[in-house]
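Feature request, filed as a ticket because there's no other form

It would be nice if the structure record came with a short human-readable summary line next to the tokens. Right now we just get the raw output. Example of a typical job, pasted below so the devs can see what we mean:
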Amino acid sequence: MEQVDWRAQRESAIHLLRSGHSVQEVSKEMNRPASWVYKWKGRYERESWAGLADRFRAPDRVANKVPEEMRQAICQARSELEAKAARGEGLGYIGAPAILEQLQGKERVSLPSTATVERVLHDAEMTRPYRSKSERKDHYPHLHPTEPHQLCQVDIVPHFLTGGQAIACFNSIDVVSRYPSGHQSLRRRSLDAAQGLIHVWQAQGIPQYTQVDNEACFSGGFTHKGVLGRVVRLALSVGTELVFSPVRHPESNGYVERFHQDYDRCVWDKTRLTDLADIQRHSHRFYRAYRQSHHHSALQGCCPAQIHARCAMHKLSADFQVPKGKQPLTEGRIHFMRKVSAQQTVSILNLDWDVPQSEPDQGVWATLEFTRQGATLRIYDAAPDATHRICLAKHSFPLKEQVHPLRPEFLRRTARRSVKQWISNMSHSLVAQVKRRFPFHDVLMARLLVKVPRSYTMS
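Raw output as currently delivered:
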């Protein structure tokens, strides 16, 4: 007996409906009752093409009570993982996949599902309650980039291979051009974070600002006072200004957080990945396809690669390696987005700093600047690109080592770039104005396009 491809029949019904046929006509054409057509029409309208897939038919009520011994084991594993993460040990994962990996090493007949683990944790009040965006009232100063290479956001999304092997996926995206890159690692130590950032700066160019979160691999840990870790020193040495997002505020890193969803869907959800090399191969294909995609409405018909190429890239050399040993401090700046405590202080690099002119719960922007004369921390009410901002506090930052000048090859050549960028911006601005006034005159557009002389192209 020939097996019927029900998915294909459902899709055929939707094709007919979308081409203008009525439900009755589709019912007659496919020799199916009208109720069947209405069912899949409604499913498609609610869930798009994914709604046409087969679903498992399970009884409405099932006996799903988790044995008490299993509940205790899940809660104990979660507690142990939280303690390890607080000590800075391991990868810091505490979710359901990490708990299942922890339970695999113990003598058990069968492991619970991920959904069961999450339900047990929720019932035991060991998860943070979800708050909708409307309930989140924290406001922080933030940058408003207008050109590529001004700000890229970097973040880690955790994954697990079949069998429990943890993978740290470092993803990065340019906020203006949406140009992505990434690096995958078996661990997420400071060395892995440094290698991930080097890969980003080799693929995307060195931006003015590189934004990361407050994980120990980026910040240097949560133990030593005034710590200046490997990643901080590396960023200073190549001339990018590291920006630390607010603590537990993923919205501030929203562009890369949103990119994680596309990465997970296209790389992890569609492919059975076997090892690190396999992950890196599929990830590279995804990044390459994403750079040429025209799906971003904000890019007005362009792809990320086109927007990213509008400004010259100052890439890190392909043979650049993570320096061995402790790297010296270099002149430059690092930044922190922070919230003022009830005691009118902010916590930066494991030290509390007074901000007497602020209000409790106020979001502030702190800049730590390193010069040959020392280091100074200034705290403002706005980001550096604001037209007007107030310095709320100024502190001398304790240093026990010398600050070295930035190497010539990493100087951003601000003066020359400013003139060239102004000319480039004027060109793009004029083109945009002509497009708005004469959207249908393509030939006229080609003639009015202002070209920047070759002598002004950035090196």
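Something like this underneath would help us a lot:
Residues 413-422, 439-459 have pLDDT under 50 and may be disordered.
Residues 68-123 form one domain.
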